[in-house]
Amino acid sequence: MMTVTKSKRKNRSSLASAVVAGCDISSMFRPPRRMKISDAVRKYMRVPRDAGNSVVWESTLTPYVVEAMNCLSSRSYDAVVFVAPARTGKTLGLIDGWISYNIVCDPSDMLVVQMTQDKAQEHSKRRLAKMFRHSPAIARRLSPHRNDNNVHDKTFRDGSFLKIGWPSINVFSSSDFKCVALTDYDRFPEDVDGEGDAFSLASKRTTTFMSLGMTLVESSPGREITDTKWKPS
């Protein structure tokens, strides 16, 4: 009798594992959800607050980032550059919001580059980890395997990958990413390890994806203007 019970439990466990694996595999073939990034962020991303609380992201608090956010999913552009004063919600909407959108609505490999290794670690631990935990739609998409999730690398059930790095040629080399985001760009070195500027290096990582590739630069106006006659082409 005991042997039969163990066998039934084992079969049920195997069946449950097979169902979970099947769901993970099927999610790889789902088409992107056709909705604006700002709408998706409002629907799926929770913003952590003190005492373990969280709130819905509200576009009305930072309406000036909405257009830039929605441009990130447009195939008419290969880059979005947003410059605004510090502490104006641009990182929350553009960086964290774009991460949320890519996880839930359009799973794809993404690279986020902070200004230093310490800041990359801080962003991952103090912002993203809390946001993932408070956002059910994101939390259930994280891989259940411990080895798939660490401070700088996050893997999801559908196989997509998020890397949180810093300006170094090792981070900008080899791997291809559909989406690359550079945050606090005014604090980046003008030349990354003698290989060129970070924007050019980042943009090369998305070329494999052609018109689907996107590079985002988010910055504060922290440097002197060197060419007063420059105009957008």
Automatic annotation (TrEMBL):
Coiled-coil blocks: none
One function term, GO molecular function aspect: ATP hydrolysis activity
Location of the Phage terminase large subunit GpA ATPase domain: 53-226
Chain segments annotated as transmembrane: none
Pfam family membership, one: GpA_ATPase
Designated name of the protein: Phage terminase large subunit family protein
Organism: Salmonella enterica
